[in-house]
Amino acid sequence: MLRILLRRRKQQLSAADITVTDRPAVRRAVSAAALGNTMEWFDFGVYAYLAGTLGKVFFPASSSGAQVVSAFATFAAAFVVRPLGGMVFGPLGDRIGRQRVLAATMIMMAISTFAVGFLPTYHAVGFAAPILLLICRLVQGFSTGGEYAGATTYIAEYAPDKRRGFLGSWLDFGTFVGYSLGSGLVTALTGVLGEDGLVSWGWRLPFLVAGPLGLIGLYMRMRLEETPAFQREAEQAHQEAEDSVAAGGEDPVETARQSGHGRLKEIFTRHWQAVLICMGLVLLYNVTNYMVTSYLPTYMTETLGQDPLTAQLLVLGTMIVVVLTITTVGRTSDRWGRRPVFMAGSIALIALAVPAFLLIRAGGILLPAFGCLILGLLLVCFAGTSASTLPALFPTRLRYGALSIAFNISVSLFGGTTPLFASGLVQLTGSRMVPAYYLMAAGVIGFVSTLFLHETAGKPLRGSGPMVETEEQAHRLVARSRTEAGRRARDIWIRLRHPWHRH
After folding, report:
1. In this structure, are residues 383 and 323 in contact, taking their beta carbons and an 8 Å threshold?
2. Neighbouring residues of 1: CB distance < 8 A, sequence distance ≥ 6
3. What φ, ψ does residue 386 adopt, rounded to 5°?
4. pLDDT (tens digit, 9 = 90+) per residue, 325-335?
5. What is the pTM assigned to this prediction?
6. Separation between Cα atoms, residue 226 and residue 218, nearest integer Å
7. pLDDT tens digits for 104-116?
């Protein structure tokens, strides 16, 4: 009985178990991580808005419909290598640290995006031009494989438990700011240069802006420190290794578990349920995301025949709405929980996808604007919650790797291919409502995934101790833990002395 009581008492927290966050360090972590996403999505916004133009520059021999499909096929090709990047950068981030890997992905992203601005056209070098574009896109995809998962992991491991939703939402705030900047720049160039000017030389300018953005992001990330959760995990692993050596040598099982192959095996054998939940939620978010950000501008111009400048302004306005509301959604998830927000968004997506696209098809400005607004508000439900939900699915020692692999497999199969599949299905079936049905299917998958999601709002990350903002909060948490441990010990004592007692 005494052993039982002592074991129950050990569950109480001590001051050493709780991490008090440093506010300036948290601000630096959030800013640097968000800036990387800003640059990544600046490129996506530029590419989505220039899809028709790039089709004319790199695939001039094709019809207009085939040019769009070809441009989106090159866009989707970058997602083919994202799982490979995730398998390389994710486990590496769990072994050598989050900060080093995030700096490396920033360098690769900046160089590959910057290089697109210097590519020769099809008229200059022939078939080599789209090949070079494809190579740049593959490098971008490989580096992006370690970017979003690493950035979400970094912010989640720095954020206090009760504000993880709000702080995590700033990562996707950077996402949509980057998209808005990229699409806004293309919209301005379209108004100033016209279609002929863009095809001639103006398409290069947005990609050249990526160089300075990359240097700024790299500078900020090089100044970052490693996350407290990773430092504690590394210290614990080092201590276990020393103890193993002192006991007579390394444990071969533990050595295999620490290796890249051992980590991958552990992810898919011991955490497969979390991987599937993660993939379902990522599918929900990214199908909606790429449908709105990457496909909708082309859908409105090439499929519906609307004015390019009007279509660009409508989608740009939608992104501004997302930017203005995303941190509010993140804060709401801290208060109400992640599951209710995902659940409400999934149900609303199933119910409102068809009405939204009917409004977009209606013509004019007012009704399409309302349809775009509906899609933007649906998107923000997932965008404001994902960065705090997904890292909490996995333990610290596997978090970066597991999240990178699950996230990028799902994005590659379903997210990044959304513009390609949607445009191809519209061409194949002749139905302009295919994108709405595609969104409804994503909503069903997201709803099922949310049913199996455990609530994590306000709770410590798996494998980590509590994170608080002040010493006073830490003291209160320790005191409450002692009180609860005492009550548990008292309940055991009562049950042992009075088995018939029910209270």
Report:
1. no
2. 492, 493, 496
3. -65, -45
4. 999 999 999 99
5. 0.82
6. 15
7. 888 888 888 888 8
